[in-house]
Automatic annotation (TrEMBL):
Natural source organism: Streptomyces bingchenggensis (strain BCW-1)
EC numbers, comma separated: 2.4.2.52
Top-level EC class: transferase
Protein name: triphosphoribosyl-dephospho-CoA synthase
Annotated keywords: ATP-binding, Nucleotide-binding, Transferase
GO terms for MF: ATP binding; triphosphoribosyl-dephospho-CoA synthase activity
Catalytic activity: 3'-dephospho-CoA + ATP = 2'-(5''-triphospho-alpha-D-ribosyl)-3'-dephospho-CoA + adenine
Annotated region (Disordered), positions in chain: 131-159
Length: 281
């Protein structure tokens, strides 16, 4: 089961990276880091470099004891090691775009291993119980996300986890709605991303452009959805305008991309997780 969960997590990260066109975010157009500072090939490589870490997260969560403080601290240590591995694999801090996805998807991997009988849509609640504990071994140096949270009161990635990943659940709902109306898979995933962008207090835009930048992201995403979503001509045109504007502003809603990766992980989980053939022996 550990390897299956790890592979599902990596597939979700790569699917998120390859989804095109993502406004303000690296995608298939960015083979030379055209605007985002992270090319697609690097993102694929860094995602694959996380495979052992995701497997280790799953193995740790399967041990008896439930969502304990000790598990939270162990997952934190694995995550910090994985960040170092990404940096080494990709030649420096360019691996940074997957940092948020490592947090979101890593917690969901742990939840899936901890509760293999639970339906995928219930796993954010299990992740919430893990994230409720502090990581007492975490470095005390501030991160850009923590600085933004302190300055603007944004929940950030940790707040999202402690709330049970409400935006992951919203993304799953958006995927279902778009598919039911006949949208292509890419259109459904773009609509799910825009649904997250429309309400998430994404610390990326806040860090680079303050509240006005975040409002532009949210208003632009909402405008695409109100125009009918990316499956309509009006929605596609609104998406193109938002993409161009965020590119010019240099605003990258990476938190929203991380949430989408978590939703795609849950959406693509092997079923049933608890089947004997999926268990490690």
């Amino acid at each position: 089961m550990d390897d299956a969960l790890a592979q599902a997590a990596v597939r979700a990260l790569i699917a998120q990276a390859e989804l095109t066109p993502k406004p303000g975010l690296a995608d298939a157009r960015d083979l030379r880091a055209r605007t985002t500072g992270a090319d697609l090939l690097t993102l694929r490589w860094s995602a694959k470099a996380l495979t052992p870490a995701f497997a280790a997260i799953a193995a740790s969560a399967r041990r008896p004891g439930g969502p304990t403080p000790a598990l939270r601290e162990e997952l934190g240590a694995i995550g910090r090691g994985a960040e170092w591995t990404m940096s080494r694999a990709c030649g420096g801090p360019a691996a940074g775009p997957h940092r948020g996805a490592l947090w979101v998807t890593g917690l969901l991997v742990a939840a899936a291993a901890l509760e293999p009988d639970a339906p995928p849509r219930e796993l954010p609640a299990a992740a919430k119980r893990i994230a409720a504990h502090p990581d007492r071994r975490a470095p005390r140096r501030p991160s850009p996300g923590s600085q933004v949270s302190a300055t603007y009161g944004a929940a950030g990635a940790r707040g999202e986890a402690r709330a049970g990943f409400p935006h992951v659940r919203r993304a799953l709902d958006a995927l279902s709605r778009a598919r039911s109306t006949g949208a292509t898979e890419a259109q459904a995933r773009l609509d799910a991303l825009l649904t997250v962008m429309s309400t998430l207090q994404d610390t990326g835009p806040l860090y680079h452009a303050g509240p006005p930048g975040l409002r532009r992201v949210q208003d632009g995403a909402r405008g695409v959805l109100e125009a009918g979503g990316t499956a309509t001509a009006a929605g596609a045109a609104a998406l193109a305008r938002l993409d161009a504007e965020l590119g010019e502003l240099g605003v990258t809603p990476r938190g929203s991309a991380a949430v989408l990766a978590g939703a795609l992980f849950l959406d693509g989980l092997p079923v049933p997780l608890a089947h004997p053939s999926n268990r490690a022996v």
